[in-house]
Amino acid sequence: MARAVSLRPVGELELLPVAVDAMGGDHAPSAIVAGARAAADAGIAVVLVGPPELVGDTLGLPLVPCTEVISMDDDPAQSVRTKKDSSLVRAAELVRDGQACAMVSAGNTGATMGSALLRMGRLPSVLRPCIGAPIPRPGGTPVVLADAGANAECTPQMLVQFARMAAAYCTARYGVEQPKIGLLSIGEEATKGTPLVKETHELLLETGLNFFGNVEGRDLLNSPVDVIVTDGFTGNVALKTMEGALKFVMGVLGDVIGTDDETKAAGMTLLPHLLPFVGDLDPDAIGGAMLLGLGGVCIISHGSSSAKAITNAISVGRELAIGGSTSRIAASIL
Amino acid sequence: MARAVSLRPVGELELLPVAVDAMGGDHAPSAIVAGARAAADAGIAVVLVGPPELVGDTLGLPLVPCTEVISMDDDPAQSVRTKKDSSLVRAAELVRDGQACAMVSAGNTGATMGSALLRMGRLPSVLRPCIGAPIPRPGGTPVVLADAGANAECTPQMLVQFARMAAAYCTARYGVEQPKIGLLSIGEEATKGTPLVKETHELLLETGLNFFGNVEGRDLLNSPVDVIVTDGFTGNVALKTMEGALKFVMGVLGDVIGTDDETKAAGMTLLPHLLPFVGDLDPDAIGGAMLLGLGGVCIISHGSSSAKAITNAISVGRELAIGGSTSRIAASIL
Question: Which residue, of A66, A206, A309, B122, has the fewest CB within 10 Å?
Fold first, then answer.
């Protein structure tokens, strides 16, 4: 399935726009186009991809036309094969064909992965690409959680590759040298967890990576490590649990502050002090997750992405492309 | 390993005290003894278990003396076999021997499970006991998460039993008839997840249980179901992730409110409105998790349990014992 990839020189990528799936996400196309416009205004070249009649006003941005759209409900594996002229598949082709330096989509995650994998190909020796999702760490660089949901079933060898790729990504994106790696388990002891975790623990000790040891669910938001490695099932459950808990508390706080004039005034007093934390925890400010292990840069943004989230994702996509993240990731597993 | 169990008549249990491991937990023995004293003051018979010289002042409560203590760091499997005169093992024996209606410990979770399993035995047909942990649901009954950490590796047949036992427990503890069952996965579709999840999904459809379908991590605190079924690895990661996220936000809020006099005043204004939520989310108010599938009632309290948490755990233990929860759970899997 994976084709041989030859990486483009970074200097060549610098001249290319970021391809943006105009039809992906709950607020597409309006929020996507607005976010792309803001990125363009900040000096980043972008090109939209989508059916002209559905995208509507492009706000002056270039549009690569196509005829199909993969919806959130479409079966990922099937849709990327049958909808070959969809905005997702065409965006991935622009990266493959050297017409874009990176792609960004807030659409169907499985189909985004499938399009990127089929069109950009897998890096040599990569068993499976994974999702590296940034988890905010107030006052520090985000923690990279990998795999955040691409592979429900994993082998120890896959998890070791996730660790290598996520470490390279952490260095490329956040400048962290020798990132500390944690393995998600249900206790700090090497003897705790599933056979998958125990075997991966042993293998990680031999990699030469900066392996910290096991970490637990409670460490996600207060992490002693820079990278958390896990299978895509556990990673996805943990990430959504964390997001759900944060959203829940924010909702409670919003309700309480909105109770009456007195509580509103109290909320206004606290707001300037809370804002730095809210900003740090805001998924829209984080810039999306990256697919690790492909022959090009693909950024997956939240389905609920706002224009701001898309602008950030575009910016991150370009930085990773011209920063040579793909070469770094390729080198990490050779 | 499991012995045949014969359940005691509920009327007999009503006359028995709750056995409390005086040496279990980060704040043992002082918080444990104080919590037991408060339960006794509320009219619940309790008996402490522990080495007299370590327990110290029992505040007038009866003490079953023993000579050993299993620490948090002790290997669970080994310690329950070698430390036969430990407070944990002796507490489980009191239940087995009809001298206590239930046991409560905030100590080493693995050793608590081991002691209870070895001494009380497994209910007939139970493949594996599991931990049923209550997750607070503000404004409603708590959601029972099973397995919250007893079995890192599970089969579909085990998960189906967890669903049955947790449903019986949910009815016994919270009075919910025909509890709605959710299966923790990474998407609502039956086709999402690991082979374990997919096969369990199929089996749950045939059980006659009130099976809702798959739920996701984000549903833990905002749940459409009364019971969430998962393997003990995923359940433990999800529970700790949720607790970590809540603790993190509470910490941020506390810091912000403590900034200066103005923010303290604002905090005082919001406090009465926040308290109901904080109370609902307070693990100390929840009363601990129950081991499901044993021949007696064993309540596992948080390692960080306060006196209040222990009082609640004792109260829950007694209620479950005299409410016939063990018979209900036994009946659920026959």
Answer: A206
Give the strand pairing for B289-292 and A130-135. unpaired
Residue B46 backbone phi and psi in degrees, to 5:
-135, 155
**Domain map (residue ranges) of chain A:** 9-126+293-329, 133-284
3-state secondary structure B259-283: CCHHHHHHHHHHHHHHHHHHHHHCH
Fold of A9-126+293-329: Isopropylmalate Dehydrogenase (3.40.718)
Q: Say what the ipTM of the complex is.
A: 0.90
End-to-end, the C-alpha distance of chain A in Å comes to: 20
Q: Which residues of B touch A136 (CB under 8 A)?
A: none
Nearest to A218 among B217, B233, B243 (CB): B243
Is there a common fold for B9-126+293-334 and B137-283? yes
CATH fold of B9-126+293-334 reads Isopropylmalate Dehydrogenase (3.40.718)
Of B211, B157, B215, nearest to B184 (Cα)? B215
CA closest to B154 among chain A residues: A194
CATH architecture of B137-283: 3-Layer(aba) Sandwich (3.40)
Give the count of Cβ contacts less than 8 A between chain A and B: 158
How much is the average pLDDT of B112-134?
95
CA-to-CA separations, B292 to A80, A291, B11, B314, in angstroms, rounded: 45, 41, 21, 17
Q: What CATH number labels A133-284?
A: 3.40.718.10
CB contact under 8 A, B152 and A194: yes
Give pTM, 2 decimals.
0.91
Residue in chain A nearest B259 by alpha carbon: A273
The residue count of chain A comes to 334
